[in-house]
Amino acid sequence: MFEPKIIAFLCTWCSYTGADLAGTSRKSSPWNIRAIRTPCSGRVSPEIIIKAFDEGADGVIVLGCHIGECHYDSGNHRTAKRIPVLKSLMELVGLEPERIRLDWVSASEGDKFSKVVTEFNETIQALGPAKWLTKGVGVDVPVLDETKVLQREG
Amino acid sequence: MVSVGRHENITLLTGSNVESVSGYVGNYQVKVRSTPRYVIEDLCTGCEQCASVCPIEVENQFELGLSTRKAVYRNSPQATPSAFAIEKEGVAPCRDACPAGQRVMGYVALVKRKRYADAYWTIRRDNPFPSVCGRVCNHKCEDACSRNAYDAPVNIVALKRYVADWAYANRDEVANMTDKSLLGTPFKKEPTPTGKHVAVIGSGPAGLTAALDLVRLGHAVTVFESYSVAGGMMRVGIPPHRLPYDQLDWEIQLIEDEGVDIKLNTRISNIPGLLDDGYDSILIATGVHDAIKLPIRNSNHPDNWLSVDFLKRALLGEALDLSGRNVIVLGAGDVALDVARTAVRLGTPDVKILCRGMRASDHEIEAAIEEGIEIVSGRVFKSVVVEGDRIQGVECVEAEVGGIVEGRRIVEELPGTEHVVEGDLVIWALGQKGDYTFLPRDGSINTKYPTGIQADEELKTTLEGVFVAGDIRNGWTSFVVDAIADGHHAARTIDRFLRGDEGIEEPKKHPRVAVMETTRIEEKIAKGLTSSKDRNEPISIPPMGRVNNFNEVVQCFSEEQAIAEAERCLECGVCAECMECVAACEKGAISHEMEERVEEYKVGAVILATGFKDFDAGEAPEYGYGLPDVLTALEFERLLNPSGPTAGKVLKRNGEPPKRVGIVHCVGSRNEKFHNYCSRACCMYSLKLAQLVRDYVDAEVFEIYRDMRAFGKGYEEFYNRVADSGVNFYGGNVRSVRKQNGHLSIHWDENYFDQPDQVDVDMVILATGFEAAEGSKNVARTFGISRSSDGFYLEKHPKLGPVETATNGIYLAGACQSPKDIPDSVAQAGGAAAIALALLDQGEVALDPTLAAVEVGLCAGCGQCVVACPYGAISIEEGVARVNEYRCKGCGTCAAACPNKAMTLVHYEDQQLIAELIGALS
Asked: Hey, what domains does chain A have and what are their CATH numbers?
């Protein structure tokens, strides 16, 4: 059985805690989900998602707080706008849009977390491995150089 | 509670809500909006005099609807603070619609309680002519009445008339009473004289209202009236069969008694001269007394009379005899009807009203038709037909009258329909315009186009010191109540002109208009809080008995009718501002002018202790809530309380004590249909109630429980004691409570064999569970905390962090975090207080270093980050982005938005995330 490599971007306050709750409540989730925690789902840029596919992910799921409940007020509004645009762009370049999923899981929704990632896992299993060009092509990310002037407010 | 209220370091903000929170742990700015109490806390002694005189009664929410309370109230004698408060839902729609701001709800409620003198003062506070408005007003109040949406509006006009008639009939008594009408106004009965003298030209409702207000402010006022009687149109324009003038004359006398000097038969035509004579200010309130006549052929024949002149002659006692004259009245509206009905009473055998379309109140039109007057509408008059020296009639043509377009009515004359309506006396009632001939010739007082005298918002004319109010201001007719409103306004503006900063201000109205919705109306009627009866109409003298005299046609309500009509009022605004509480309060603690306050507080930590909401047993009808004598536990607690609705006696609805009481556990809890969780406190409080029932009444108690959760210190021992005292316990899951054979019958699934599964009782107590408090969703959002799936606030960690939340500096205490009883709430509160103190004591806080940072060299200053930041923490300065570290919360949305990747989030930089990805996917 093909075991997909799935990256789940989880926000610290809602979906990550929800995933934790799923664990403590002994709700089963597929073990091949790799969680990457960020403070807010708004931190997840389209470029990072593409990089995930570059590095071999078969599917990427972004889970944030429900709209109106973002710990940072409106970070998830940005995510809500970015992901659909990314999905349609990926479609243009030959990646099935179902390989990217955006959903909302709150800190108390252990059940939902488990259900959503299980569903996503099944979707990716059915799609098979991602046929995506790997390393070398993708987005070049500049390295943060401490020696250059960094504008910080004191 | 008292020690909390008295502690010098504790500020108690009641009636308050946190609107917004900004900042971070140790440095929160909390914006609080407080609704005013309308009672000065430091002055109120809690003597309850105000509540005893308040006429408005509403449901007592503190007693869970088991009793009523007044609009000025205190939740319980043990309340902290002990001051009373006034509930104001907003300004009632009737008062909001009235140009003079009459406190309609107030006087209607006082009539309901037979307090007619108090009702009279409430009316007179804003209206010196109750007898007039109680008869001829266009009652915008009735049009706005919430009850319009349900059946028919309250008959406010008739109620006002009832009070006016009562006051007149009892005027000697009234003269000896304390005048409460000045309470809540800036006026005084004996004010300090200001030394200023005001001349008012015209003694109509506008002029006299202004004059009365001005003397009450200390100014000397002389009113100049050109007619031989005072009262303006009220006296010379409304015939006595609609408005008997003895009451009006009395009302004018009262105004003169307060110091207004009225000079009759004095026409003023030299206004600048008055200013030279020493008057400090002049108010022009001359009204519009020139009837309009169309310049059609033969309209200047002497038998063309004008409405105003005709009425004035008749009403000033001239013996006019119209027998043998056939009258044609030209025009539509109240004045045309007044003219026609007056003509009938002066003997004319035949009256016809010709108009394009009759516009007057339905009952006036009906009354006119009953008196034999013929109303012919859809006519345009072409000429007056004269033969020899007598008028033969009016030639007119039929027309189709449509709506108003661009200020003009669409009238289409139908060709070939010319005909003559016969008659020998034509009276023109087409409306009135102003007479401006008395204004100075040099044009120093400008008129307005097309009609009226030019005035600004302070009612000032173009001549310094000269003001204008009433009909003459716009140059067309309005209603008496509009003139009264204008008169009040003029008094305020003139006072400001004369006294500058010491002058009175414009009154502030409550910002909300409290219209009651239909569902609420139906609720009130179903609960018996308002009458469900139809609107009462006053009776009129039958036509036969009225056409040859000027006796008043419409009769006054009887006392029964008045009270029955007053009971129909829905009391929309709750507090009516009738000022009875102000009159009763010896400490002067009532302040109706209090306003909402919004204040910002700087706090270091926040503890949320917003409590819980009782499960609404109405959502579970299987338990019989709604049947008489089925109570929730909280309602039963109110019955037990000595300051509760039954003064502490356990009584059924029929007033007798119960003989058999059933207590049902787990109502709303441990149930998939409602809430899965156990509410933790109900088993123990049910045991307590069982014991209390046995203490208070000689009754058998049956407690049906699923499990007995007696987990705390001394709890199991208490359970055993209650069981030993003779309370009957049955283990089972209650399925239903029904009315059977005159008893309340509780049915359950039995847990133990050979145990009954049903018991008949005459009172049932439902042990309702806990729910998240009303509004807890909003509170959670305001403070940026989460809630668990059961709706209660989410703690940081179920075992290790029960009082903290994921947001630093916001702590939880009590049932708002999860259902619990008092000992546990107190313990948790101590914990929250300790952690909050520990935080504040540190003097410093360690902040999360996860902040946004800009690589200036890569930044193009596009501003995408600025737009993305939820906190406005980024600005573009000198072409590049700059992050305000105090505002930045570290979400990283800006980093994702940056096209150049010049913005990043420290500790979550792209390279770090990519490294994680590589590791995870290897």
From this structure: 6-128 (3.40.50)
